[in-house]
Design a protein that fits this description.
Elements: E1 6-7, H1 9-18, E2 23-26, H2 30-33, E3 42-43, H3 49-52, E4 62-65, H4 70-81, E5 87-90, H5 93-99
């Protein structure tokens, strides 16, 4: 996507394996999250992002993902406009994550 910084699944997994500090945000809806999340991701439905920006460090490596990468790309664009320079979209979203054989974490229904 033009103007949106992205990471692919293998790069994200490498960062995670290296123990790199990453804030991983799942911007899908709660019902979608119930199907599983990338390990160590935080729940942050896209519509809540503007209200939560003050809780975030603009310099922290932050990766957003959704089902396919479209909604998370919108979130990355919004965050970039607000001065977040180290924010990335997970290319292909959780679909690409699963297709690459990466693990999911079960999410308790709340």
């Amino acid at each position: 996507m033009y103007g949106i910084k992205e990471l692919d699944v293998n790069t994200l997994q490498s960062y995670m394996d290296e123990g790199k500090k990453i804030r991983l945000l799942d911007v899908r809806g709660v019902a979608e999250m119930a199907q599983g999340m990338i390990p160590d991701a935080e729940k942050l439905p896209l519509h809540t992002l503007p209200a939560r920006l003050n809780d975030m460090d603009a310099d922290e490596l932050t990766v957003l993902y959704c089902r396919s990468g479209a909604r998370s790309a919108q979130g990355v664009g919004f965050m970039a406009q607000q001065g977040f320079d180290n924010v990335y979209n997970l290319r292909g979203g959780i679909i690409a994550w699963v297709q690459n054989g990466m693990p999911l974490e079960a999410v308790p229904v709340s």
